[in-house]
Amino acid sequence: MSHPSPTPPSFRYSTALVAIHWFMALLLVAVYASIELRVLFPKGSEPRELIKTLHFLLGLGVLLMVALRLAARVSSPRPPPTSPPDRDVWMERVAAAGHASLYLLMASMPVLGWLSLSAAGKPIAFFGLQLPALMAADKTWAHDLKAMHETLGTVGYWLIGSHVMAALGHQWVLKDGLLNRMALGRQAAAG
Fold first, then answer.
1. Is this structure's pTM higher than 0.70?
2. For the segment 78-91, what is each residue's pLDDT rounded down to a tens digit?
């Protein structure tokens, strides 16, 4: 039985980036869970409205974390690729496109939600603060923005699922130790 070996520091992302990654993963689980759990309560009921408010607050939290994560990513050195040289180019391009799609999703979803609430003429509270409406009330826009938000939410399930499957494929099929780059703690098991 092999024992975990320390991952070389140059192979791992920074501790800050790893912590932000996993916090955002938990935050996204909470965002999706909150919107899925709302259906347990009748429309217009206090618990349902509370869950929808929680969903919005968590979504804005994701937006703030995206900004923090991008700042941490820019200021942190990037580990070298884990794949063999003959697969580097296409794997790097697919990974870059996947990551860009995830960032775009995480940044646009809260903004679409905020726009949707603004267009619906609903008050927008964020931890006791009253956020400004991003647009004038307009029922047609509110409906369209809500539909876009919901459609992107479904796309998000696929993007997040693809991200997880790619990471697991690296770990168990390619056995290149990619998961060690984002492992919690100072030591990670070798691929």
1. yes
2. 887 665 555 668 88
